[in-house]
Each structure stands twice: as C-alpha cells, then as structure tokens.
Write a structure and sequence with these properties.
This protein is of the alpha+beta class. The chain has 10 helices and 7 strands.
Length: 295
C-alpha cells in the first residue's frame, strides 16, 4: 500500500525549493527483485540490522535533488514518531504502481520488516503461480496461526481486473473504428459502381477512340482515392481537436504520434484503394461495341 506523505530532510532545504511529497511504501529489501524494479544508482537497502535505510525512485530523485545528488540524504516523516529517519542508499527505476495509464509519481521505499494487519506479501513463482497458493497459505499459518490469509491471487489477475473498464472501452472503440472503415469502403464501392454504370457509354466511346484500359482504371481509382484523402484530412483535423480527450485513453503513445497516424492512414488508403479498384477494373473491361449498341 502507498500513502502520499510530506517528508523532510535532516540536512535541510532552502525555502525556495519545493516541498518533498511522495508516495511512501514500506517494503523489505527483496521487494525490488520480486517485482523486477531495476537499481539505477547506489545499492539496494538492507535489513534494519544495518541501520534504517530507504530507496527512492528516479522521478523523486530528479524532481527534488537533480538526480544522483539524492544519495546520502536522510529523510524523515514529520509528526510520525514510529518512522525512523533513514538514509537514501539507492535510486531505483520508476514503476507504474498506480496504473499503466498514470505517469510515475515520486516514490520513497522505507526498507523494514514492520508487519501489520494490512501487510501485503509478494511471492515470485516460476510457472503457474496458482499452484503455490495452498503452500503459501499453509506456510503463513505455520509462522502466525492467528493471521488471516486471504485474496491470494496472481498479480496478472489483479492487473487484468484493474483495467477491465479500459479494456472494454478499447474493444468498443476498435469495433466502432472497424465498422466505420467498413461502412466507408462499402459506401465508396457503391458510389463508384454507380458512377461506372452511369458513364458506361462514355468509357466505351473513349476506348473506341483509342484510350488505354489502364488509363480508365487510373481515372476511376483517382476519384476514389481523392475522396478518401479528403476524409483522412477531415479525420486528422478532428483527431487534433480531440487530442486532449484521446490522450487519457492511451498508454505508451501520444495522441499525435506520427508513426501511429501514418500507419492508420496507410491502412485506410489501402482498404479504400482496394474498394475503388474493383469498380475501376470493371469499367476498363467494358466492350466498346457492345456498350455503344445498348440503348
């Protein structure tokens, strides 16, 4: 569990410097190896027997101490006599512990083995973690028979449950997007097919006068692609207008990421080109004499 707290340094800070505020977690030294949080600078904190120590994440060090200068400082929690002032022994990487859709916040890890009813235990398993649930429950009962053991669930399931709403929203948006592209392609195909039927005699006359069939294909294909390009421009304008709203639903990519936008445009143009190509090829296959004889 994390608690956002105000902190102070025993070394003191200038009044012009920002106040120290961070998410405080009480962990054991093995916490970082269990979750795979990398050590960036210094050394991992040790047990209380070697003196009170702590770790801070990169965001905390950069925001309040300009990076590695945080090493060696002693932090305390004002007004809390149960927390011993501790020395920062190392800087670890940022972990999105509050959610993948939230930027890492300044975090302080107080290293001790203080146990209380709300303590959470993390166990790293090789293979299927559900196979060791009964063993973990039995071991904890051996150590502390009166302690209640509950909510033994793989971490992946906790993460999956936490993002169920975001996942559902993503699936719905993806379905809407596929439906929109499909409808656009069907509409484009139908419009071009109707245009070809209206200009059937015109095409036949051009072919009879010596026009090449690939020129006819190119003409009708250009009409479809021109319509698609106008739709893409309108879509990019709307995407830019709603960039702030879209950014809250994205992870690992911005609402204006050029590679993503280029990929989407390429997909839309390819699908629309295929939808336009069929009527264009059918127009080029018109037999001039037969079409001109038709009333």
């Amino acid at each position: 569990m994390a608690y956002q707290m105000d902190l102070e340094t025993l070394e003191g800070r200038a009044e012009t410097e920002p106040k120290l505020r961070a998410d405080v977690r009480f962990v054991t030294p093995s916490y970082f190896a269990t979750l795979g949080v990398p050590l960036l600078t210094g050394e991992l904190c040790r047990d209380q027997a070697s003196g009170p120590t702590m770790m801070v994440n990169r965001t905390f060090a950069n925001r309040y101490f300009g990076g590695s200068a945080a090493m060696g400082h002693h932090l305390t929690m004002p007004g809390n006599s149960y927390v011993t002032p501790s020395e920062i022994r190392g800087i670890v990487g940022d972990a999105r512990e509050t959610g993948l859709d939230h930027e890492p916040q300044p975090a302080v890890y107080w290293c001790n083995d203080l146990l209380q009813p709300g303590t959470y235990f993390l166990v790293k398993a090789h293979g299927d973690p559900s196979t060791i649930i009964s063993a973990v429950r039995r071991k904890i009962h051996e150590i502390e028979p009166m302690r209640s053991v509950y909510d033994l669930t793989p971490l992946s399931d906790h993460i999956s449950d936490a993002y169920a709403e975001n996942r559902l929203r993503t699936i719905l948006l993806a379905c809407f997007a596929v439906t929109a592209v499909s409808l656009a392609c069907v509409g484009l195909y139908g419009t071009l097919s109707y245009l070809v039927s209206l200009r059937r005699r015109e095409v036949a006359l051009r072919l009879a006068l010596g026009a090449l069939r690939n020129q006819v294909v190119g003409q009708f294909l250009a009409v479809g692609l021109r319509t698609t390009v106008l739709g893409c421009v309108a879509g990019m304008v709307l995407a830019a207008a709603f960039a702030r709203l879209l950014s809250s639903m994205l992870f690992g990519v911005t609402a204006t990421d050029p590679e993503t936008i280029a990929g989407v445009l390429a997909i839309v143009l390819t699908v629309s080109g295929a939808a336009s190509l069929i009527p264009a090829v059918r127009a080029a296959r018109v037999e001039p004499m037969q079409a001109l004889r038709e009333e």
